[in-house]
Amino acid sequence: MNISEFAKEAGVSVSAVSRYFNDGYLSDDKRALIEAAIERTGYVPSYSARTVRSKVTKLVGVILPKLSSESIARITEDIGEVLGEEGFELLLVNTSNDYNREISSLELFRQNRVDGVILLAGVITDLHRSLLAKMRVPTIIVGQKLKGFNCVCHNDLGAAYNMTKLMLDKGAKRPAFIGANPEDMAAGKDRRIGFEKAVLDAGLTLDPKFCEIARFSMDSGYEKAKHLFSGREKPDCLFCATDNIAAGAMLYCRENGIRIPEDLMISAVGDSRFDKVLYVSLSSVHLHYKTAGREGANMLLAEMKKTSEVHRIVQLEYDIIERESTNRIG
Amino acid sequence: MNISEFAKEAGVSVSAVSRYFNDGYLSDDKRALIEAAIERTGYVPSYSARTVRSKVTKLVGVILPKLSSESIARITEDIGEVLGEEGFELLLVNTSNDYNREISSLELFRQNRVDGVILLAGVITDLHRSLLAKMRVPTIIVGQKLKGFNCVCHNDLGAAYNMTKLMLDKGAKRPAFIGANPEDMAAGKDRRIGFEKAVLDAGLTLDPKFCEIARFSMDSGYEKAKHLFSGREKPDCLFCATDNIAAGAMLYCRENGIRIPEDLMISAVGDSRFDKVLYVSLSSVHLHYKTAGREGANMLLAEMKKTSEVHRIVQLEYDIIERESTNRIG
Q1: CATH superfamily of B156-286+320-326
Q2: Beta bridge mates, A269
Q3: What SS3 state is found at A122?
Q4: Which residues of B touch A130 (CB under 8 A)?
Q5: Sequence ranges of the domains in chain B
Q6: What pLDDT digit, counting tens, does each position of B86-110 carry?
Q7: Pick from B91, B67, B103, B215: which is nearest to A293 by CA?
Q8: Do domains B3-50 and B156-286+320-326 have the same CATH topology?
């Protein structure tokens, strides 16, 4: 049953049916007629029926670096909420942090299948830059700063600096770090710079054997913690680039009798829901992921409506959340 | 630069370029010519160039009930792996457990945008059934049993029965349950039936005030645990439909001095990575999510190739993982 047949069945015009499914204005009488006809026929509007009014496809592509991440989910859910209110649906692709899949996803969305794109970005290569410059639809970057584009990002450096400083202020002398890929400017490089700056500002030296690079997973955090503790000298505090990495490091500590926070203070970035239920509750930096999602979605809407030609980079601040894992009296 | 221009630049045929990007056979000489031309031009194959060989769009739509779920991520990553080997990309939509969005996503994918659909299903309504029957492309259901369709599901009933039985065998007498929406036949209804059967088989009675229904979230688990413990009589064991619900219930226990497992044994379904790092490690049922993803993807490939006209329902078994949260000596 197409929209015309259904309109006939309901005894209303096609445009009334379209307004009904697009939440447009409709008299109560017509609304009742349409609802009765839906009851009778089980009619489901086709995608095209729902876009009769606006004549646009109403799809936004969102490129995600991974699926099993609370931060990614928070950002994406708020993007969906803001864009949903404007009648857009999201098409997501998951790249599993693989550059090639990111590139092919950008390419896929560039072929006019969607009206806009939001890239939840990790590593940005030259190939990304050249493809992004060629996008035919408005494109917003969330999570990284990239000149010449509309971006929403976090103050990763400040977050890492102050979370590390908190542990050093409590008397830690042998700070260690498990970071992410340094080609990822936000979660990798900036969080590392923040850590290093806090260590140097505290008058301590950076010990290269106390610096590890992990993948974004608990398993990788576990492996890197094992390596950190394999040497003769042991760290007394550990800053991790993400909560998942920290959870893996904590599992290693639990299995090997390393007491938190007595032997090792530990902290991270993300403020995941599970932080409070870990065997020692985890101190972590709250980044405003939901706000980032809303901000990115609103930027995209503005770019679609061409309300401004000026690109902007919005950097969101953060909150330090102290819990038991850093609760040591100096 | 399109594929013809690039082929000319590289000094090879269009079909050689296509074979290159589709991992087809290619002589070393031609491969070297193409790679040199990529270096020179920064050429990125367009989506159509990559599909010249097969003449199909090579997209599969996957409908997800939520994003921040480890089980969903595990299933989806393995679907992506199997289909990726066959040259398919996944387009995902997240419905946030909203039936209307599930319906509109099915409708979206029905409009010939994709070559196949995998629905990670929760509640199946009559509207789902009628839309699923009208799909023009092969469609596989993962997570639920639905007659007349190819499905991959778990033994939810057996999983819940045996996880509950384990706690009752250790002497629990006042079993409680925090379940999911009973309209969700797998995670909601079957897990509840399994719990109830175990209670009755142990010669105990079901206490309606010890049965709660939560949403699929930690926050909801916390609220329902609060309600469970608000009465005069307290449960001594608790089976939760998911690890997230259990983590929320555990947070309530931690904040309110309810000792696990001494005062309350607790267990769930999912075997999430974080179970081992919770403040009391959580006993949980391991469902074979990765296998379910692979199986679903292979079913879809088989249906695309029309190797069989017979629909099948594959039910996967489970493993009980005992940890500290149920470690009470009777």
Answers
A1: Response regulator (3.40.50.2300)
A2: A285
A3: coil
A4: 42, 44
A5: 3-50, 59-154+288-316, 156-286+320-326
A6: 989 999 999 988 888 888 888 888 7
A7: B67
A8: no
For residue B257, the SS3 value is coil
Q: Enter the DSSP assignment of B187.
A: I
Name the β-bridge partners of B72: none
Condensed to tens digits (0 to 9), the pLDDT of residues A55-68 reads: 445 899 999 998 88
Residues of B in contact with A250 (CB under 8 A): 277
* Fold for the domain defined by B59-154+288-316: Rossmann fold (3.40.50)
Domain A3-50 classification at class level: mainly alpha
For chain A, how many helices (H) and strands (E)?
Answer: 12, 12
**Residue A261, SS3?**
coil
Sheet containing strand A211-213, strands side by side: A211-213, A175-179, A237-240, A265-269, A283-287, A318-321
Q: Closest partner residue to B251 among A108, A113, A276, by Cβ?
A: A276
ipTM of the complex: 0.78
How far, in Å, are A24, A59, B88, B117, B175 from residue B57 at the CA level?
34, 18, 8, 13, 52
Q: Tell me, which fold does domain A59-154+288-317 have in CATH?
A: Rossmann fold (3.40.50)
Cβ-Cβ pairs closer than 8 A, A with B, add up to: 130
Tokens of B45: 């194959």
State the smallest CA–CA distance between residue A164 and chain B in angstroms: 22
Q: Note whether A43 and A17 are within 8 A (CB).
A: no
Distance from CA of B197 to the nearest CA of A (A): 30
Q: What is the CA radius of gyration of chain A?
A: 25
Q: Give tens-digit pLDDT for A173-211.
A: 999 999 999 999 999 999 999 999 999 999 999 999 999
DSSP B129-154: HHHHHT-SS-EEEESS--TTSEEEEE
Alpha carbon of B107: minimum distance to chain A alpha carbons (Å): 6
Q: Which pLDDT score is estimated for B21? A: 75
